[in-house]
Design a protein that fits this description.
Elements lengths: L10 H20 L2 H8 L18 H14 L10 H14 L4 E11 L2 E10 L2 E3 L8 E6 L23
Antiparallel strand pairs: 1-2, 1-4, 2-3
Helix pairs in contact: 1-2, 1-3, 1-4, 3-4
Length: 165
């Protein structure tokens, strides 16, 4: 089994990220996706957004995303390698650092089982923390950044429960 943290100083960060994975797993089962995202994420105020030309991240953000990946790779209880959990945590990390991050949910008809879905995070419309560029049609963006709440939202907030489990 792979160690979750490589240095003792990363233990506290691993515990904090574990806590968020547990909270995300519970909240997503209790409310709709848009409501869960509002509960679980920081809202980026316009004065907190730092204009950055490239996508360069603080090493602490990269370290936290790496630890998140290792935690989700445990594949035990709520620690499962799920893209939407990873995206919510990555968004929280980037938004806390003042980055104009956005969670993108998309679908693709290229799966052998029909429709396939994926969630990822973008900064300045560039996917981040992805090994390959996602080839999915965006269906839901959070936050929308255009002044309208969740403008590409295909989910109705009036539905009960979450579509994800």
């Amino acid at each position: 089994m792979q160690r979750i943290y490589k240095k003792p100083s990363e233990l506290l960060l691993a515990l904090k990220l574990s806590w968020w994975i547990i909270v995300i797993s519970i909240v997503i089962r209790c409310v709709t996706l848009p409501r869960a995202l509002r509960i679980l994420t920081h809202t980026i105020s316009p004065k907190r957004i730092m204009i950055r030309k490239g996508v360069a991240f603080d090493s602490s953000i990269l370290r936290a995303v790496n630890i998140t990946d290792r935690l989700l790779a445990l594949n035990h209880l709520c620690f499962t390698p799920t893209c939407w959990k990873r995206s919510i945590i990555a968004y929280r990390l980037l938004a806390s650092a003042g980055m104009p991050a956005q969670i993108v949910f998309g679908v693709s008809g290229k799966s052998k089982d029909g429709i396939d879905g994926h969630a990822w995070v973008e900064v300045n419309s560039v996917p981040v923390f992805e090994a390959v560029t996602p080839e999915y049609v965006p269906t839901f963006l959070y936050p929308s950044f255009d002044g309208k709440p969740d403008s590409k939202n295909i989910f109705d907030d009036s539905t009960q429960g979450s579509q994800f489990s």
